[in-house]
Amino acid sequence: MTESAVLTRFVTASDEDAWKALYSGYREFYRLERDDRVVDRVWGWILRGEHSLRGLVATGDDDVPIALADIRTFARPSSGTTGLYLDDLFTSPAARGRGAGSALLARIADLAGDEGLSVVRWITDRENAPARRLYDRHATATRWVTYDLPPSALTS
Fold this sequence. Notes:
Blueprint (H helix, E strand, L loop, with lengths): L6 E4 L5 H14 L6 H13 L5 E6 L5 E12 L4 E11 L8 H15 L5 E2 L7 H10 L18
Parallel strand pairs: 4-5
Antiparallel strand pairs: 1-2, 2-3, 3-4
Helix pairs in contact: 1-2
């Protein structure tokens, strides 16, 4: 498969098995606990459009998904605009280097432009050098640092 043979499209219900395999691979790559309930839940969110979540896939000429991207809109109060957030991007190991990631990023940029959104934003692991090489070809790393604050425990 050449880069020109990579196509992108929104997921459909018939992509369930392939998407779930890719998403499970994504979770494994990031050393997240195997949890089919989480995979099922996220798939359901995408199919129903919950949390404004949409799923894209990259396919070869055979229309079998080889990569996924999960995106959602988000409010940007500082600019009074809306952006597009890329939550997940993953290419199957067998398909890496064939242009699927670039094709998905280009499609996402086109969607953001078509929808009048102000930015496409995402985070990645600072140690994920292959992904960062891809991202550096398409986007600019920002100066912002990400923090996670756990929710407070409920008190009775």
